Amino acid sequence: MEGLDGLLAKKKRVAKWAPDRNGSLVLSSRANWFSSSKSSKKVPSHYVTSIIDGLKKLYVKKLKPLEVAYHFSDFVSPLLANSDFDAKPMVMLLGQYSTGKTTFIKHLLKTSYPGAHIGPEPTTDRFVVVMNGPDERCVPGNTIAVQADMPFSGLTTFGTSFLSKFECSQMPHPLLENVTIVDTPGVLSGEKQRTQRSYDFTGVTSWFAAKCDLILLLFDPHKLDISDEFKRVIASLQGHDDKIRVVLNKADQVDTQQLMRVYGALMWSLGKVLNTPEVTRVYIGSFNDRPINEAPTGPVGKELFEKEQDDLLSDLKNIPKKACDRRINEFVKRARAAKIHAYIISHLKKEMPAMMGKAKKQKRLIDNLEDEFVKIQKEHHLPAGDFPNVEHFREVLSGYSIDKFEKLKPKLIQAVDDMLGYDIPELLKNFRNPYD
Known about the structure:
This is EH domain-containing protein 1-like isoform X1. By secondary structure, the protein is α/β, with parallel strands linked by helices. 47% of the residues lie in helices and 11% in strands. The protein is built from 17 helices and eleven strands. The strands form two sheets. It has an eight-stranded mixed sheet with strand order 6-7-5-8-4-9-10-11, sandwiched between helices. Strands 1-2-3 form a three-stranded antiparallel sheet, with no helix packed on it. Strand 10 (244-248), helix 11 and strand 11 (282-284) form a beta-alpha-beta unit. The protein is globular, with a radius of gyration of 24 Å. It starts with a helix and ends in a 6-residue tail after the last helix.
């Protein structure tokens, strides 16, 4: 990416927020890879920490009781820990094998991370979290999942078979001080994805998607077909459309005419999978250490790739600035999901008979779950788009006895309403986002 060499060459001048004599955070004289030239104002040190601390307190006091009462962690997302609030912003790369995911990370870091493998065949066989650390090392998944200061404890629900295919790669790097990068195995084609992986690949992808600030979908001009498995993976990103960016990598391997055809075919394929009326933004470029190949596309192509790469770079640079807003956004989204989940569970409980025929009624409720969702939607005036996936909910629900669920507790719902209506706006009013 044009200009990245110069920026990273100035490692020693990477900015850090350092306290001055008055206890306020100021940008040190060193230039930050992520900061703009306008970021020279003082930032009171309690701003960001107070917003995050405020969210932690609100979660424990008002949202967590609702989640615990209605088994939210089993149906939707595991309970949050302090490490989930304190975690650095994350970027996840997804794509079919040999689309250049690991090479993209190597290009960003200007070096290979510990344990990286690059090749034309499916080489990355595990989920790798690349993060900042004092020295270069690989930490096994079972170890990283039980560390209290890491936001990966929720991955234990996917079992030992997944944790053996998960690792954390640590290395000292100025870019990793600001973001954490998630490298993923290439999505396979055919039944191999579903039957030969020993863990729920789509479920893991969905878990990371909820935690990530940006999701990059990488495509190769020679691999435009979106397999059924990749379609399922993209479908698991539902609800996180604002985080998705599409990258057409290795674009300098085809000439201008072919590139136009490839771009059109990719847009057509994405239109069938993403199911949105809006056109998805596609970044075109060649993200590797070699100079752009001008032979197929000529100087016009080179100029196009450089502009596209600059646009993608600016997206990446803005991640830390938007991290605080993103944290609040995800928290509010979670609170709304927990409320709807409570309405669903309490409604199903209310439909159960007091004495006889409980098993038959439960089976009928599970079979007609779509109709029950419509009833709840009309009763509480809820938007249909906020309801969970019916198939997934039905699958989890079949392992429970509906009769043992809690009835609706208006006090818990009211506490979450108060949090959304008063507490969070008050928190934001007192502590404005310092990066604006």
